[in-house]
User: What shape does this take?
Amino acid sequence: MSKPMMDFSRRSNMQITMLKSGVMVLHLFFPEKIYFIKADCLRKGELFVDNAFPPNSNSLGDVSGLSEVKWLRPAPAYCTDGMSRFDFAQGSLGNCWFLSAMSALTFQKNLMEQVVPMDQSFEDYAGIFHFRFWRFGKWVDVVIDDYLPTINKQFLSVSSKCQNEFWAPLLEKAYAKVCGSYADMHGGSSSDAFKDFTGGLYHCHDFKKPNAPSHDELWLTLSRATECKSLICSMTGEEDKLANTGLADGHGYSVTGITEVNSRAVRLVRVMNPWGAGEWNGKWSDKSDMWDKVEPEVRKMCFDRDDGEFWMEFEDFCSHFREVTICSETPNFLDGDFKCQWKCMIYDGSWVAGISAGGKWDEPTFATNPQYRIQVSVIDKEEPEDKNVLVSLMQKPLQEHHSWCGKPPPLLKDGRLGSEFFNTNSTVKRPTRYQGFIEVIQLYSLEPGEYVIVPFTYEPNITADFVLTVYTKADAKIR
Assistant: This one.
């Protein structure tokens, strides 16, 4: 059983320590360099060995309880008949969060081929492969060799159900390199993988919070997300009621479909276990007699096979799972406005101690933080409360951060707003609590006018880089 996914703050703190200590070293390549390396290996008659992520214990990391690990190159085959969620199964590492996200990714061919380039195979084999991830505002190529860790000739981590396809364990290795080691993938959040797979937006729905959406609201959200071709993952709780249900506690699953049957009286959710086995055994499960009560065409949706994928009634899903994470390339899934074309603007910025790292809003140095002006000129008059601006702030390295949005007076001489303005004007949105999230996302309904966005860290005088992404539904300019 995989361990529960840990929260954002723990993962942020872990990665910050790694970056400061120099443990995380990620060797990135430009595509043209990848092909040069491969051609050089072919000319020399050698197989590529990635010295930045070598086939030894350093790349494996602190994985307890393992011995006699051997790194082996797979038999030649990369992808023979397309990439499917049924191609792989989780191994001994607790990275269900990553594999469930990977399972969801297989439904979106264009995104899948962005992450897993198909212009590579075991033809002209040189032992070198590359994958692409969205890292802090840019798509980067991550190169690996094809040495994979095994015990008794069995894959240590994700395994391929097809004996001649190895895209899944190679993709996992590339992401282990991004994380630092295989051990560093033990515990995480699907939202992190979603971000690195898409560069898009994610939203988490926690069923247990006091302000959790109703079942009807959540169903509407899932319907919108499905229509927008979003990636969806879910996670079970750790409650006793999971006993004898076939569900693992504290475990990540992917949501692979939703439907309504019996004239829409029954809502069903299709769920996939990254183990490749182990399924729900309640109502509407593979062996449930509920399928005998529906039309033959509906009955075809049920496959009685132990492949890890199953249907369950939506009410049971809400009862046994504790959260759902949805990710899409655009914000359309948030409000169901599928016709809207959002405009996206991405900016790299920095906080510099003593210069532009002013800390949170009540610090006397707050006004020294970076400032971005946004001019909203048009709104949807038919929807006066329409959410028309979305702000995302991601910090490098990962620490506590938030964004602040307020409406400014005319520009100062240097284009910046001073402390007096922030001390005497109210805000459109200001955080009331601070957590070590990897990314902060805020959705606003802004009237026409000029606004300022101020990214900041909780403590002043912390030097770090950040990526600010602004999506606008209305016409807008940023400076």
In short: The chain has three domains: 8-188, 201-328, 341-478.
